[in-house]
Amino acid sequence: MGINNKIKNKISFVILHYLAFQDTIECIDSIISNYDRLCYEIVVVDNYSNNGSQEKLEIYYSGQNNIYFLKMGYNSGFAKGNNYGYQYAKKYLKPNYIILLNNDTILNQKDFLIKIDEIYQSAKFDILGPDIVSLSNNLHQNPMALFGINKENLGETIKTTRKLIIQNNIGYLSLRSKAGKLIRGIIKIQSSFQSNKLSEKIQENPLLHGSCLIFSSNYIEKYNGLFSGTFMFVEEEILWYIAQKENLKMLYSPEIKILHKEDASTNLLYGIGRRKRKFILKNSLKSLLLLREIRKNNLIYLNDVLAD
Q1: Cα-based distances in Å from 127 to 4, 67, 95, 169, 301
Q2: How far apart are CA 166 and CA 197, in angstroms?
Q3: 282/25 Cα distance (integer angstroms)
Q4: Cβ(235)–Cβ(227) under 8 Å?
Q5: 185 in a structural domain
Q6: Is the whole model's pTM more than 0.85, yes or no?
Q7: What pLDDT is recorded for position 183?
């Protein structure tokens, strides 16, 4: 692990844990096994799992003094849970980079941390996304698209989502419909699930996948994290819209890579049938409606994400 001694900047990983104990273990262990512990700190936020998994994690890593455990008092969803860890890292750990990392991801690239700093030195990004390879089908999930959803498609997507909610409630949707495929039908974008070509080269200001978001000191200084108004879904679209309005530089780079298992926590809680589809569609609709309101009134996001 001597290669990581070259890293001069401080990095904080924020990992949102919910229910899936083994996945979180594998994620944290992939960091520990590949990088010098002096190069990073890990903040694990338990999003009110309430199944004993957080306590098991604390015991499992009791000898690691660079891992911090936080616990939410309720299930706050993706954005608020990540922001809790982000703001803790920002206030107490004062890193140069904060990496929001899904607990169902694995890092095995030895020079991952070094590359982040090299990319920043050359590109001065605000938000960086790596090549994300799905372990379920070996496809590349980043960038999700070259652009976020526009006003016209947003309106159509809201209508489609409402129809799908009705169809799911009456049992019209096939029980074999996969949640990921369903969501890609809701968000009408040309994603890298359909074409791996987008992942082959650097892309500026694309729509980045939320399973790994890397924020530079530029962003950390000015912003409180993600927009916190959603529970789950559409966070990437909202972040992209805010980045465009705030003139922030989003960057995708194939020089850094992670692996993604996907859907571990929601599968544990909801399974893979109608109940999960209902959860996805309901929360997608709420987030899409919120994005529509944000586009009408930018003060909604400004009052939420701007640091004091």
Answers
A1: 22, 24, 15, 38, 17
A2: 35
A3: 30
A4: yes
A5: no
A6: yes
A7: 52
Show the domain range for 93: 2-147+192-266
pLDDT per residue as tens digits for the range 262-273: 755 444 444 556
Q: How many domains does the chain have?
A: 1
Tell me whether residue 139 is in a domain: yes
pLDDT the model gives residue 195? 47
Nearest to 204 by CA among 119, 138, 139, 288: 119
Q: Report which residue type is found at 260.
A: H
CA angle 100–265–18, rounded 5-degree value? 60
Indicate if the pLDDT at residue 137 is higher than 90.
Answer: no
**Does a structural domain hold residue 167?**
no
User: What CATH number should be reported for the domain holding residue 136?
Assistant: 3.90.550.10
Q: How far apart are the first and last CA of the chain?
A: 39
pLDDT category at 88 given cuts 50, 70, 90 is very high
Q: For residue 278, is it within any domain? A: no
